[in-house]
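Backbone-to-sequence.
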């Protein structure tokens, strides 16, 4: 698993299960459930690296759609509305993508 040693497999499974139905994903709850709000900045950077699948230095909308699948391969894709909500939360400058700073800033808001 991509997050082995950083996040609890049990917590990930429970968080993914909690938002199994389309339209039920809440990024703030998910971050808390998997332990992202209490992880170190270094772990946050590692998570960003996993989510940035094309290694562009940014997380784009297409990558966000697959957000849950990064945590659990059999998970569903986010809906358009869920993807847009998550993008809006992390896109600090309105350029349609999330940089490392945007993700870390949003993660810290949940502390």
């Amino acid at each position: 698993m991509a997050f082995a040693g950083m996040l609890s497999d049990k917590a990930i499974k429970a968080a993914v299960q909690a938002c199994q139905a389309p339209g039920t994903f809440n990024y703030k709850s998910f971050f808390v459930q998997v332990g992202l709000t209490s992880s170190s900045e270094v772990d946050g950077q590692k998570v960003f690296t996993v989510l940035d699948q094309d290694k562009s230095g940014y997380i784009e909308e297409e990558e966000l759609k697959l957000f849950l699948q990064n945590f659990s391969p059999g998970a569903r894709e986010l809906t358009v509305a869920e993807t847009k909500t998550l993008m809006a939360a992390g896109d600090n400058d309105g350029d349609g993508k999330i940089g490392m700073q945007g993700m870390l800033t949003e993660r810290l808001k949940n502390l």
